[in-house]
Amino acid sequence: MNKSQNWIDRGLAHVANTYGRFPLVAASGKGCWLTDIDGKRYLDFLAGVAVNSLGHCHPKVVAALQEQAAKLLHCSNYYHIPQQIELAEILCEHSFGDRVFFCNSGAEANEAALKLVRKYSADTYGTDRFEIITAIDSFHGRTLATISATGQDRIQSGFAPLISGFKYVPFGDIAALKTAIGPKTCAIMMEPIQGEGGINVPPQGYLQAARELCDKHNLLLIFDEIQVGLGRTGKLFAYEHDNVEPDVMTLAKALAAGPPIGAMIAREKYATALSPGTHGSTFGGNPLLTAAGVAAMKVLLEDHIIDNCVAMGNYLKAQLEQLQNKYTFIKNIRGRGLILGMELTFEGAEIVKTALQRGLLINCTAGKVLRFVPPLIVTQDEIDQMIEILDGILKEL
Ligand SMILES: *Cc1c(COP(=O)(O)O)cnc(C)c1O
């Protein structure tokens, strides 16, 4: 028996079976390559679902973690933490935001955003103005409040009663957004590009219309940039493509390029609603993870990572479009930068399985959309290798 099978059997016996895992036992990673416990190498175009944006084990992130781990691992948020302060400064300097709440995941960042908009609205307008409009096919996380915000039956099913006060509208439909706003509405929350929902890019002008509606009705606009933020779309934040700024933004996945961290960023006017005692997190913003976050942000901002994302995003999109010209079962290629989707006329699960056998990691979302979210440091040669494997699979269908 190889080493992998032993681990797989043990995992199936005792690890919560929430993922329907593929038969890969991860051992190490470098750049765009993941190696399993038996030494097989995989070209990683999933990147831990858009987490390993600087590639696996970026040396500057690893060094920051090692150095910080030897100095101070954890310290209560009752005290000031320099690494946390530095990361907050970097995020505010490069975004619309003034103040950052740190936590440990995307769902927690969204929880903080949802609490903030409700608290601000209650403090300012009274307690019966609490409704939050979100989009159908959105994804905001797996906690009770964030599945309530997520406009997908598949994710909510079985967990009733959900948190009340959410209204869902078709993504990209300005008229529907307008109609959904009522006297109880306090905020609109959306992903600038839907990730899990199938790499859905809204029509030009949609995010701007959402901003205008928020201004007109005194609503807060929350952008969930957990998947698309931090360079992935070819700009530091996806909202920059549309010349629209939110009031609140959530980040997580790529923020420390591997280690778990989340952040909720808000304008000062709204951020103060979360006053001492109204929200918190024991681990949130701890020295170890924020040191990694600072290192990751510096690499992202200083090492031309986003320039590479733009160039390689264009290249990958062109290569995927060539496949589309070749195969009639490819409906379209969509996305921006290095978050690209290939919609098929059938379910993509088998392609993902075959790709794994041939040393390529991709995944399929919303049933029929193959998702490509490689590290932002991916090279043209690696894209060529990916396309060759994918083309080989598609050819046999
Ligand atoms: C991944 C994701 C989340 C949830 O993040 P977790 O860290 O898994 O809790 C929320 N929103 C979006 C857009 C995501 O892609």
What is the compact description of this entry?
Helices cover 40% and strands 17% of the residues.
Could you characterize what this model shows?
Helices cover 40% and strands 17% of the residues. With 397 residues, it is an alpha/beta fold. It has 2 domains: 149 residues, Alpha-Beta Complex (Aspartate Aminotransferase, domain 1), CATH 3.90.1150.10; 231 residues, 3-Layer(aba) Sandwich (Aspartate Aminotransferase, domain 2). The longest helix is centred in the C-terminal third of the chain and has 22 residues. The radius of gyration is 21 Å and the shape is globular. It binds pyridoxal-5'-phosphate (PLP). Pyridoxal-5'-phosphate binds next to α5. One of its GO terms (molecular function) is taurine-pyruvate aminotransferase activity. Its main location: cytoplasm. This is Acetylornithine aminotransferase. One of its GO terms (cellular component) is cytoplasm.
